């Protein structure tokens, strides 16, 4: 089963001193290399700062947009991993090693894999 691991932190790389960001980049390189080797890796990337986000809503057929993230919070999404794991327990064990888990939090969500979703997305 695939799981999305959303990394939340109070600061993203652009908001850190260079030495701290460089250290974290290296921690992420080591973590990513380890889950590639273990077979858990599916995909990952870093997100740009919340100031680059746009939140959209569609109401009665009209699109409205707001600059920035949806929620007002100190923590912000900094990146994600999509991992492959046997079950939620294994996903938790893998996600607990994501460097951001020790500074912020990591939200783990199963990726939908039901026939209707796969058919609608053209993946089935």
Describe this structure in words.
This protein is 28% helix and 33% strand. With 124 residues, it is α+β, with helices and mostly antiparallel strands. The strands form two sheets. The protein has a four-stranded antiparallel sheet, covered by helices on one side. Strands 3-4 form a two-stranded antiparallel sheet. β3 (54-59) and β4 (62-67) form a beta hairpin.
Quote the distance from N terminus to C terminus: 15 Å
Count of the domains: 1
Evaluate the radius of gyration: 17 Å
- The total count of helices amounts to 3
DSSP strand tally:
6
Low-confidence stretches: none
The CATH superfamily label reads Dimeric alpha+beta barrel
Order of helices and strands: EHEEEEHEH
- How much helicity do the residues have? 25-40%
Specify the structural class.
alpha+beta
Mean pLDDT: 88
- General form: flat
The neighbouring-strand order within the major sheet is: 2-5-1-6
CATH topology tier name: Alpha-Beta Plaits
How large a portion of the residues is in β-strands, by DSSP E? 25-35%
In terms of quaternary structure, what is this?
A: single chain
Q: Specify the biggest β-sheet.
A: 4 strands, antiparallel
| CATH C-level name | Alpha Beta
CATH-scheme architecture: 2-Layer Sandwich
């Amino acid at each position: 089963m695939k799981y999305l691991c959303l990394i939340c932190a109070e600061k993203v790389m652009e908001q850190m001193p260079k030495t701290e960001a460089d250290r974290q980049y290296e921690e992420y390189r080591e973590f990513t290399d380890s889950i590639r080797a273990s077979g858990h890796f599916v995909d990952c990337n870093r997100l740009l700062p919340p100031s680059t986000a746009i939140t959209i809503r569609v109401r009665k057929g009209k699109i409205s947009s707001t600059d920035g993230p949806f929620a007002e919070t100190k923590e912000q999404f900094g990146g994600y991993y999509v991992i492959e794991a046997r079950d939620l327990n294994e996903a938790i064990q893998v996600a607990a090693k994501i460097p951001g888990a020790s500074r912020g939090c990591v939200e783990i969500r199963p990726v939908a894999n039901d026939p209707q979703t796969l058919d609608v997305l053209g993946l089935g």
